[in-house]
Amino acid sequence: MAVTTTEPAAPARSGRGSILARSSGLRTGLLLLPPMLWLGVAYLAALAALFITSLWGQDDFTGAIVRVWTLQNYHDLVHIPVYRTIAFRTIGIAALVTVVDAVVAFPIALFMAKVASPRVRRLLVIAVLMPLWASYLVKAYAWRGMFSEGGLIDWVGKPVGLHSPGYGLVATTITLAYLWLPYMILPIFAGLERVPSSLFEASGDLGAGALTTIRRVVLPMAFPAIVAGSIFTFSLSLGDYIAVQIVGGASQLLGNVVYANVGSANNLPFASALATVPVVVMLVYLAAARRTGALENL
Amino acid sequence: MTVRIRSLGALMGVAALALVAGCGSQAGSTPGATPGAGGFTPPSIPMKQSMGKMEGSVDILAWPGYAEDGSNDPKVDWVTPFEQQTGCQANVKYFGTSDEAVNLLKTGNYDVVSASGDASLRLIAAGDVAPVNTSLIKDYNQIEPFLKDKAWNSVNGQMYGVPHGWGANLLMYRTDLVSPAPTSWGAVFDQSSSYKGKVTAYDSPIYIADAALYLMKTQPDLGIKNPYALDQTQLDAAVSLLKNQRTNISEYWSDYLKEVSAFKSGDSVIGTTWKVIQQVAASEKAPVKAILPSEGATGWSDTWMVSAHAQHPNCAYAWMSYITEPKPQSEVAQYFGEAPANGQACKLTGAAFCKAYHTTDQAFANKIWYWTTPISQCLDGRTDATCTNYGDWTQAWTEIKG
To answer: Which residues of chain B are modeled with pLDDT < 70?
Structure first.
């Protein structure tokens, strides 16, 4: 995003000084060169390499990459039903995780931004950030333990006759929603902080109850922030492959099918073709998000 | 703003073009070997002629349990004596599936690998492993003759490795949760619904052969003669059996520690296993047993192979020589639960052990369907049919998992 933000071009100053000082264009160019190189090489070139690899084939027997241009990988991707199923399942899980996170995060963020005292707010921000300090793997394995036969969820649910859902898509959704929650809370919190408290009072003065105020004043203003948070939760869920391996049972999502193609089948070309699916989905999602003005909330 | 974006776009375009052009020049090259049944010509890789100075370290790629240095169990350690004898520091990396082994060896970061039959030929054909000079292996003459010069470890009479050991994939179950005790693979196929959500299976396309073996015994009409030689109809039958099993699967395993933990907690109660997994689970107090079902089993016959890009060829040969001596062979065999390739190991394990694993019993060894890479030419000798290859199996495996 940083690339597209406009900076007013400073008028070229005349007078003494080095070329650098005189030519603002050169100065800006030099300043931007390292990050642009980084962006170009690390991101765009990697994406280009991914795309090019997806147009190659693989020798089934030796596993060697055959560098002959072919669209076979994309053909398989579209025409073999299982990949469509996996793609839609992945998008569905990512959407569900996003909704769960939004529903859980909104009240927390609202409390942090508008109700809590500054001291409590600071403590809450730390509490929200704290899980990010722990290793992702540790958290995923903790959930594996909780979902297991006779684990914490079984133990807590037993008195009311509830069982752990076991390893599967439910467990994956819950684990992902837990993992990405901070990425949803923080943008909403930031967005709500910017809403002047006077609007709440005005709404109250005009006779709206708390719920009406939230529904008709707070939510519309917080919407871009929620969309901003959803970009994180949605894209992170879309690409995740570890949580589903640990708590997903036998389920397959795009991430772990890519992983299986890279890690065990050694079919890098097909894995690349698969990996373009989340890229395309995210481009569409970002284009939609841009219309809500959410990108200014990032 | 628009100008800026446009110039950025142009820049990207130029970069992409340059990349495409750069890659295009490689586009004509094809891999050196053509795949085919036995008939392929492996790329010419020089064979080591004599031993030189030890390099001080060796990078070993092995099946779990093949290179234990005491870190899992202080009593189980045959790597440390090797390091003391040769001065080669051993860096061991365990892998979970043959595909993973092939993939890791291709990186060129490893010197020596314990390859099963479904990996070995692929490695030879791709030029990833070098022919092995068996005269540099100290106890090569003690290796059982029926393991030498086999289709999975040699090409045109040239050995590409040193036989390590062999065994069968077993059926493991929780003795407290599965009754009556199973005697057939049917427990995880036709009757898997009795353990709904508690069945486990090996997460690799090669597991399709387990289903094919079961069909070979229970549905003779299909005409399966070799579980690695399936035409499309036979593969479809195996796939439908596995799709049926899929509805009762708790999770697939390829990481052996994941299977141990699943059987300990009871998330999995029945499924395919290796002897070593059962032993680890039992040592951690899980009530598990592993049996060889009545249909027989798929299995492995492993070979130590040396990488064509080995950075430490002398230490690699030292390792291959050491690991096939009677003493380490007896230790690996007992820990992993397999028949050692070196029959002299039986003097150290005791005769009962070798009898249980049929170490010198060629007839028994012939009954196990060793992992083999399926290829288009039917391995059972049929010439009127085209068989499905490993690529088809990989595709089918993704569809089975759904």
So the answer is: 1-39
